[in-house]
Each structure stands twice: as structure tokens, then as C-alpha cells.
Amino acid sequence: MSSWTSQKHGARIRLWDISLGVALLISWCGPANGDEPVRLQAQPPIAKSVAAFPRLVGGATPAVTKRINKALALADARIRKGVGSCKDDYLFSKQMEERRTDRKLRDFADDLWNRQISITMAGPRYLSFFASDEYFCGGPYPNEDYLALVFDLVTGALVDWGQLLPELAKEKRTGYSDATGTVGTISSPRLQELYQDEAKLDGSCADFDFGANGAAFIVWIDAKKPGLGVKPSLVHSERACGPSITIPLEILKSTEVSADFLQAFSLPQ
Known about the structure:
The chain has helices at residues 62-98, 103-109, 161-164, 189-199, 249-252, 259-266; strands at 3-8, 11-16, 25-26, 39-41, 55-58, 113-122, 126-135, 143-152, 171-177, 181-187, 217-222, 227-232, 245-248. The chain is α+β, with helices and mostly antiparallel strands and 269 residues long. The longest helix is centred in the N-terminal third of the chain and has 37 residues, at 62-98. The chain starts with a strand and ends with a helix.
């Protein structure tokens, strides 16, 4: 398996197990029934170091394509608004602290936000993205946020993890991030157990306590490993104890998992 990274003006999109075509068109041929890989087209970056989500241009029905692209456009719009507000907040704080309004400061503010997007599965059955944001808008420390978007290529809707992974998604939670807006997470004792087994936390994190209610996890499909990508949603001071990991497919099979989810890994990618 191979990986390819497209980088323009600092914005980065990482593409796993897919091929680069003309004009950054990632293309496959096949019927639009969700059982084949899809075609995606890269978009101009939102800002200097802020990648935009690519758009679906083939391999799905027109209705599914429209629905998914609308969701991706809304995700980009939220980040565009966040980047603008972040820059304004930073410049205002510096003007108050240092009485500076010079061009050099404004140019520096253009580098305050970095977004990387990984396409972790591009069909069959599912289209999966994982985005990471690092940004500094003033204040005592920089921030970071994460977002996973996983679409069903048959319906165009975001997947229902409770149907795909009922044992691991006993509880579905909705959080909020200044960077990404609403963030969906799932949780269960079994998912936390599998995460801790795979993460193999050591050192100062060896005895990390996820709390009485357990951790909420951002999840996505990882076609490269293959398996389920998992990252706990933690506050800033705890994030060093919450690395991204992949629970291997073979381990997932030991849990209650839908046939549709497993079948996606058996089809040509």
C-alpha cells in the first residue's frame, strides 16, 4: 500500500491507498452503488496552511454526491469562519499588549492555523476523513482539535456508529469545538478497553484515568491498516495521553460488528 501527500501553500491532504490523476483528480471507474471506490477532486486551500475537504465527483449517485458535498462545504465554511475569527482575536490581543499594527504582525497571523486532512477510506461503501487542526489565537497556549467525517456511500448520510459497531458505540455523544463546530463521539467500556490495549500508554500516562464516565472517542475507518481509527476527546492538559491509534480489523471481529462494515474491507479498494 502506498500514500501520497498533496501540499499547496502549506495545506496538506494525505491520501491513503489511492492514485493521483490529472489535475489532482483521484479517479476510479465503477458502478455508482457504493461497492466501488469513488472519485474525489482536491479543492483550493481555505487559507495558507488550511486544507479544504476534497469533493466527491464520481462513483456515487448524483443525490449521494450532492448530499456529501454539501456536508463537506459546510465543514469548510465553519473552518473558514474560525480562521478569520482566530486571526482577528490574535491581532486584537497583540494590539492591546504591544500596540502593534504593523504588516509583519499581520503576515505572521496568516500562519496561526494549520489543518491537515487524511482521506482514510475512499470506498467501497464508505468515504472517511480525519482532520486535525492546530491553531493559536492568543492566550496561554495553542489549541488543537480533531474531526472525523464518515459517510455512507449508499445514502450520503454520516454513518450511524450504533448500527455499525453496536458493542463499541453504546453511547453516542455530541461535543462542540470552536474550530470544527459539532463533533460526534462514541463511547463504551469495551471501546475504552480496546483503546487502552492498543495505545499501550506508559510513562506519566501509564495510570491515566479516563474518569467515572469513561472517555468519548472520535472514530473513523482506516482502510490502510485496516481497522477503526480511534482518538479520545480530551481537554488540552490531558491530550498527551490520548494518541490516535487503529484497532485492527481482526480484533474488531471479536466484537459485535455489522456485516456491512466488514464487507467494505473485503471489496476491492
